Amino acid sequence: MAKKNVYFFGGGKAEGKASMPNLLGGKGANLAEMASLGIPVPAGFTITTEVCTEYYANKGKLPKALEAEVKQALARVEKTMGKKFGDVKNPLLVSVRSGARKSMPGMMETVLNVGLCSKTIPGLIEKTNNPRFVFDSYRRLIMMYADVVMEKAAGIEVAEGQGVRLKLEHAMEAMKHAKGVTQDTELDAHDLKILCDAFKKIVRDTLGKTFPDDPMEQLWGGIKAVFQSWNGKRAIAYRRIEGIPDEWGTAVNVQSMVFGNLGDTSATGVAFTRNPATGENAFYGEWLVNAQGEDVVAGIRTPSPLNKATKTEDNKHIKSLEEAWPKTYKALVNVRNTLEKHYKDMQDIEFTIEDGLLYMLQTRTGKRTGFAAVRVAVEMAESKLIDKNTAIMRVRPEQLDEFLHPMLDPAAEKKAHVLAKGLPAGPGGAVGQVVFTADDAQAWKEKGKKVILVRNETSPEDVHGMHAAEAILTAKGGMTSHAALVARGWGKCCIVGCGALNIDVAKKQVSVGGQVIKEGEWMSMNGSAGKVYVSALPVLPANPEANKWYKRIMQWADAIRQINVRTNAERPEDAAIAVKFGAEGIGLARTEHMFFQPERILYMRQMILSQNEAERRKAVMKLLPFQKADFIGIFKAMAGKPVTVRLLDPPLHEFVGSLLEDPEELNNLAKLCKVAPEDIRTRVESLHEFNPMLGHRGCRLGIAYPEITEMQARAILEAATELTKKKIKVLPEIMVPLVGTKKELEHQVAIIHQVAADVAKQSKIKVNYMVGTMIEIPRAALVADQIAQTAEFFSFGTNDLTQMGFGYSRDDVGGFLPIYLQKDILPADPFQILDQEGIGQLVDMAVQRGRSTRAMLKCGICGEHGGEPNSVKFCHRVGLNYVSCSPFRVPIARFAAAQAAIETPRKAAKKK
Amino acid sequence: MAKKNVYFFGGGKAEGKASMPNLLGGKGANLAEMASLGIPVPAGFTITTEVCTEYYANKGKLPKALEAEVKQALARVEKTMGKKFGDVKNPLLVSVRSGARKSMPGMMETVLNVGLCSKTIPGLIEKTNNPRFVFDSYRRLIMMYADVVMEKAAGIEVAEGQGVRLKLEHAMEAMKHAKGVTQDTELDAHDLKILCDAFKKIVRDTLGKTFPDDPMEQLWGGIKAVFQSWNGKRAIAYRRIEGIPDEWGTAVNVQSMVFGNLGDTSATGVAFTRNPATGENAFYGEWLVNAQGEDVVAGIRTPSPLNKATKTEDNKHIKSLEEAWPKTYKALVNVRNTLEKHYKDMQDIEFTIEDGLLYMLQTRTGKRTGFAAVRVAVEMAESKLIDKNTAIMRVRPEQLDEFLHPMLDPAAEKKAHVLAKGLPAGPGGAVGQVVFTADDAQAWKEKGKKVILVRNETSPEDVHGMHAAEAILTAKGGMTSHAALVARGWGKCCIVGCGALNIDVAKKQVSVGGQVIKEGEWMSMNGSAGKVYVSALPVLPANPEANKWYKRIMQWADAIRQINVRTNAERPEDAAIAVKFGAEGIGLARTEHMFFQPERILYMRQMILSQNEAERRKAVMKLLPFQKADFIGIFKAMAGKPVTVRLLDPPLHEFVGSLLEDPEELNNLAKLCKVAPEDIRTRVESLHEFNPMLGHRGCRLGIAYPEITEMQARAILEAATELTKKKIKVLPEIMVPLVGTKKELEHQVAIIHQVAADVAKQSKIKVNYMVGTMIEIPRAALVADQIAQTAEFFSFGTNDLTQMGFGYSRDDVGGFLPIYLQKDILPADPFQILDQEGIGQLVDMAVQRGRSTRAMLKCGICGEHGGEPNSVKFCHRVGLNYVSCSPFRVPIARFAAAQAAIETPRKAAKKK
């Protein structure tokens, strides 16, 4: 049987279904599903994503079989709708829309009103008795078609401001000006008819081609243009950010037009089955009388509230759909209930009311904030609509970040003057400098600045700038506008529909009342309350546990996860925050940071510049009391929880390099050490390395200068002894860094055990401690079986493992990594997301080999991947006992670990 | 059954045999073997190496069972020799000597004449009727024992010049001075008796202990001292150089003394069954009348020739053993023949003639020069004593280096004045600056200087300096002296017994006749002829094929080896030398070296400093004709042989970094590029990397700047096309460097194929070429299966693989590698000898995984390990098709490959 390219839906029947998004795209699959459910959907058909793939494989040629299939499906649509495409009396008009597997809002092209032409216009006028509507639809068709099909899809490159669409808009503005009106709606049928003729002339003059007057030609042009838009610049950029593969392709949905702009008994709207910002179980939406759907989404007109639950201070005076057309509203509520029950998830829907009749144009899983994701999941689970595991899988681990987001200090907010209020589209607090274009946002961000992007409204062209910004503020648009949708998807602070703003992009300033705020001025935003302030307000850390739904879902997650989550911290304050966020120990306490304080670095430098062991030992031992105090602090903060302390790691040059630029400091040190400044200079220079990353660091230091290891081991063990005396439980795990051979580890372990024996003898107290190593050198993974004979635990330093495994210096990767990502050589930055395919093999291998010689070997990860959800899941799968990450990533890691346990349960829980 | 600790030999019987060197040490095993063969060997016994291991494991305690076993064996020795240890009438004296698995000449301790004491002295005087001999033996015993047992083995550290031995020597000198004599032999029995008393007093005063007067106490002191000397400084240093494991331990041989110093019918000598310098099949040795064995080896008296074959210009007037005592000589020749026939290899033997009776004290495989090793092996194989494979296994691949050694230009030698002549102890020519101490030799070498070490004689304390020197020249000693033995073992140029030298170490000068040569002056040596010149003579490259034995054994080796040997070269001259040495292709032609010539670097820099692709392409294309000419040269030199060309590899900073130090050059470039010098400076600085080794280099350049790859591919393919037109066979293999992911390679391969298609279209000639990659990044080995889908060949860049696999920067490893070797953390420098255990896994894995997706994948190695014999053998074992190394290592690699094929034959020969 030949491959089926086209799937019909409509009239209570459908060839596709919701489970076919890969083939039909999300929109097509769900239209089919709705049709099958008996929900009123305008009839139509979906051309599969496979056709898109074929289209690109065959350099822009569509498969031969397609034409016949489209004709057949079109005939069925005509029959269902009782109209005929291209018919002079009762013409069917259709929309042509994209629809990828995963929603890419606004990133691809759409053509509406296809089928309007000189021969169908009179019939439609007669049928609707509304010539103004018909010509308005026609001018919209010409505008979209010229832009999307005749210019963009044809690959015509135009300079900024030279595009055909802009020219057509200017023509329309000119006509309004000539007529002395300001609104599109003030142009009458006659005006629009003239405008359509003018449009067609401009199209011909600009593009050298005539606007097609044949419905079938329009239809095929639209279909091809949608396929073509899959590889448009915007779509590609969006796919990069979202990690959507290029190979997926888009489907094309051809659907009967229904009109929300047919007059005052028509309307259009979008809604969420629950509140997408808070997750509250209340029907939530917006609508506009006499409008097409794009008008709501584009945020050009601020829409009306759907119902009482959607009303705000700003729009409570406007009639809701519930109030205006209660019967239609009730029909819509029924659809809402059907959909939630059927899909068992919060839906994002689009509807049109044509002459009082309700049509559903789309349903899809609704994007939501992290707050909403958690609340919806918990409430659905508690009402037994879904089970707990499903609830956990419903929240992306990264979304928890919102709970950890800082917020504006409420006390400061109370005192501050509220500049303006808008709709709270993305929660949390944000502070930044104001910029007015997406490009500026990106450029400033690259310079390390925090910016707030202020726009009248945003469009898909702004996505890169929105991504760069701390927060987004728009003057227009509602809770379902482009800005709101995108910001919510990213968990970004966002306020929309802030009508008080008067933005002058050319002057790079915004005025509110009389107050003018210029580019670069500081602004603060409370995205949860929709409040804007002109100053940098103080920001408070997050307190996630205050949210009952968060608390609940984290309890569920903790109950199911099989690996522990620790934190990377060396300051007691940070450790305390991490414990608050659920850390079960410290996976990495770096000791070198402790040496940079002024009083300490002096001894550190003396140590480094020593001429012989005796001198060096003397200097090192001066550091002992400091180190001991550090460890007492951190062990106390983590009482009863394991603490992994890494011995000195960085090359010594890091501690003395700055002396070369600071002659005074150098001279002081020379005096103190009683040596000539020149000698110090020479010694410092001799410590310079060509590739310090691969130089004299890690355990190579402890082997060359065993007294350093001795001092550190003593500090750890004396601190542990002192606290043990005070009945505080201490579980130190001493970690030897940068081990590549068993003998290196043996050398260091022998010193540590010797010191431990000395300390135990002196204090008559024996503390429990473990000695292990970081696996961060590829060779260590290869000989992990040998190393595990000596190591009691492994901690994967995946940062260095990635550096050495890939041969990428993290400090220099900026030279080529952006090119690699752009050219799709790498799927992601391997320093952010663990390269499971390559570097992951080393981790997996080391765990297996290590446990082949030490069955109970404790394994963890302390590289920065330990807080990245995909990497956490990998760690679960390869059998690690714990992951360790920065305090603010701890909840995310806990949650990702739970998802991993649901996706791939392990035989034995390794929790300790 | 309890473990046997002691093995008896003597009287035609032995408990041990030659095949037990691991247990008995080389010396003990061979003494046993000789005894079994009926060769006259003074009876004795061997304490096993296992006892040594136990001795160290138990912190210096000997196993309990040992005492009884030693007593039992001693009784058997007494019975065999008809004397009794400690007997007052007919006392047995014994020697106590070390004996490791592998000979470590002079590195451990020996005590002779053990058993002499106040109660045995009178009996021995009566028995020998030679009181002078007895007291001379006694003073030797005291001297050795005090030094070796009472001082060194007791762990007493003494300052330079404060050792007990030196004090005893001073006492002896003082007595000679008082008596007005110069030679030891001029002291009579009475003098020596007094001296012995004086010695004992000095020993007591210096060491606070009395010299033991009990034979058994002496014996056990000697045994322990030998075990102790296994961990002496010299022994450890030697083991490091020779790669002998610390765990092996030494055996102890206790053997009846026989005396070569019993008068004029006694003598001692050492001999080789063939000439150890040339390999000539002639009995070769030296002897001394009335002397103990150490006198010959120490080189204090220049010995007499053994026979006619051993006579030289300098000693032809001295009576040979053959002439002096023809009967004894004949007995010795019989022993020689027996031993060679039995051992089937050239032997190094020691003998003593006591009162006309011949005793053999040692036989072992004789150390030999590379020249000798090859000739002996070939001649033994041709005479059917051994087979060809055995012959090949008899030569260490590194020994072939001698054939490749340069020699002094004979024409220049003819004209030059010969300063002095000595014995040609180590072949080849050498030129260097004169130094007079081992420490100076090492220090100068570390500064990059070439030195010749000039000494009166060398001792084991000089080993580090001898290793550092280009050549060794001694005033004393014969062909079997310490200097000669050690130099021969290393294939180093060496002249000994150069009596004309008057060396003044204090003044750091040597005079010959009236001519004074000071430290730092240049000297040239012809080690094959024994000639010394005072000037730096020109040196000629080697011509190994002129040696018929070399030619023969290399033919045998080439016939058996299963992998090919290529060379790393980019200049046609070097390629030609390599072909002469047997290279079968080029495994690595680096293209970056070609860009450093003045006319080229200009374009290279323009390319690097280009602002955009168009500019860059223009600059790059200017390099095309140069590159093409380079490839034509190298392809011609290698006509018919494969040539692997690596695309640009180093970071761009290498080409422009020097501009920052050369403002003039920078300004010139700025003018040429029409940009501000400051802009160039900024760009150059922006190219600086923290870890350039892990930075923007290799294929990362070709991906960022595809035009570079295009140009290089075009140069290669146009060159190949041009030569193909001229009927010259060209086999280019284009190698993409630093690949870590399949997509990187795909990106570059697509460019290369595109260029190839273009060139083929333009020229209408299709050249065969391959495209492959270097496996030098650990990740590449891990995903080799994927990479092999695109790569037609792999070439292992084990230098970088070692750098990244170990995390060692080759440029910075000096900071810790010496410490690692000294502390035995690493067995060897992994950049010299491939770390088979760790990095080797990556190679093995990559070969297997690569061939899992491309069965016929060609695999080779182009890192510097490709010329290191152990690494070559590894390459054979893991199934590589070829190794590639520097031209001068090619014969060594060919030979190592043959040995590998003998040791581990592969199923299928992969030669292509």
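qc> The two ends of chain B are 56 Å apart (CA to CA).
qc> done
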